[in-house]
Automatic annotation (TrEMBL):
Region annotation (Disordered) ranges: 257-276
Phylogenetic classification of the source organism: Bacteria, Bacillati, Actinomycetota, Actinomycetes, Propionibacteriales
Entries under NCBIfam families matching the protein: HMP-P_kinase (TIGR00097)
EC number, as in UniProt: 2.7.1.49
Name assigned to this protein: Hydroxymethylpyrimidine/phosphomethylpyrimidine kinase
Organism of provenance: Nocardioides dokdonensis FR1436
Gene Ontology biological process: thiamine biosynthetic process; thiamine diphosphate biosynthetic process
Main enzyme class: transferase
Catalytic activity: 4-amino-5-hydroxymethyl-2-methylpyrimidine + ATP = 4-amino-2-methyl-5-(phosphooxymethyl)pyrimidine + ADP + H(+); 4-amino-2-methyl-5-(phosphooxymethyl)pyrimidine + ATP = 4-amino-2-methyl-5-(diphosphooxymethyl)pyrimidine + ADP
Amino acid composition bias (Basic and acidic residues), ranges on this chain: 264-276
Listed pathway(s): Cofactor biosynthesis; thiamine diphosphate biosynthesis; 4-amino-2-methyl-5-diphosphomethylpyrimidine from 5-amino-1-(5-phospho-D-ribosyl)imidazole: step 3/3
Amino acid sequence: MIRAQRRPVDPPVLLSVAGTDSGGAAGTAADLTTFAALGAHGACVVTAVTAQDTTGVRDVHPVPRRSVEAQLDAVLEDLPVAASKTGMLGHPGVVELVAARLGGTRLVVDPVLVATSGAVLGDASVARAYVEHLLPVAAVCTPNADEAAVLLGREGTPRDLAAALSDLGCAVVVTGGPGTDPAGASCTDWLAHPGGPVRALAHPAVDTGNDHGTGCTFSAALAVALGHGDDLETAVARAAAHTVAALHRSSGWRLGRGRGPIAHTHDPIRTTGGDR
Ligand SMILES: Nc1ncnc2c1ncn2[C@@H]1O[C@H](COP(=O)(O)OP(=O)(O)O)[C@@H](O)[C@H]1O
Ligand SMILES: Cc1ncc(COP(=O)(O)O)c(N)n1
């Protein structure tokens, strides 16, 4: 007798709206692999194609707005998106488009403006569009301290920048690498809710030069946790733990001539050498 098979549970669908990185460390590559590592199905809307490696960005080819719009329509008209995240958007028109389509949903905005290598991936008009259109309708925004200062047009402590950005209407995590601790032993992220207190969230620092794609991985993991229904503090803690574990896995790698990729792998398949 053939028994009726129970239908497997559908994975949550997570959407990445980001640029590609030909070196496979940041952007779409980091987002989709993080979604997969955390058990989600990843959809991706590509906003720009970058020629990039571990040492820097050689070329940026923006995807036309109407193509970004068509990709967004294709995903949103077909798939039950539980949460989304944005990375490099590259053009103010694309920032406005994303605000119109994804505003008010479980949306994590990683305002990518400058790459780790120093390349500008979003100019002043993009920063203005984030402030005017996207941050007021996002669930949470995850700039590093430099990006937070560019968005606000002024310097400040990470705590102060987090509080000021949250006044725009969304929760904010100002992320900090190991440079936030003079001893380099811990990293502190600053979490601010609109109108609420700012909390310092510290975790151990990983001593590594392989951190290209870290911010993308963190914000993608944060979107997965929010898609699961976690509250923001739990989601931030889970995303940080995932990121730290990934940085540990790649810390001994020697890939590329520059800042190597953060690990996107889970349990690597090891070569056993067969029966020898
Ligand atoms: N060397 C590190 N060890 C542990 N955590 C890190 C390290 N570098 C970054 N992080 C964490 O990774 C997340 C993303 O931060 P960050 O590196 O500031 O992003 P970005 O790539 O946008 O600059 C944060 O939670 C931050 O604390
Ligand atoms: C396409 C793309 N998106 C995002 C980043 C930022 O990542 P990082 O800060 O690690 O350079 C990047 N370099 N390229």
